[in-house]
Amino acid sequence: MRRQDRAAGWRNRAGVAAARNTARAPAPRRAPAQRPAPQPVRPRPQARPQIRWDRVGRVGLLVVLVGLLYLYIGPTISFIETWGEAGDRRAEVQRLKQENERLRERRRALQNPRVLEREARRLGMVKPGERGYIVKNLPRP
Questions:
Q1: DSSP letter assigned to residue 137
Q2: Rounded Cα distance, 12 and 126, in Å
């Protein structure tokens, strides 16, 4: 420190520490400072709400996903219905193949004259020159 400061009552650091250690009379207590009267609370001007871009992004993504789901629902339903119809058609084709095979066998069988005559008689036909008889009230076998 400079001499002028010491002469004016300033102390250096060592002097300050020594002054602290010396016993002094306690300083008189001051009255607590009065606080200024509270100001009436003015309503804040309404701030514009901040845009939460993370939420906007999530909502936008959700809208896009729902839109894509909506676009896929129609073709998916159509695919499932077509698959079911294809199964029905396969079963019908199998049934028709079996019926076709049965009819081919019947045609081959009707090529034989004995089988052809038996079928004709079952239908009630007679050969030319034969006399047909009708017997009524017979029990059915």
A1: S
A2: 153
CB atoms within 10 A of CB 125: 11
Q: How many residues does the chain have?
A: 141
Q: What is the helix (H) or strand (E) element at residue 97, kind and residue range?
A: helix 53-110
Residues 32-47: tens digit of each pLDDT: 677 777 787 777 777 7
Whole-model pTM?
0.43
Decide: 31 and 20 in contact? Cβ < 8 Å: no
- Identify the pLDDT of residue 37: 75
Residues near 32 by beta carbon (within 8 Å), at least 6 away in sequence: none
The tokens of 108 are what? 């081959």
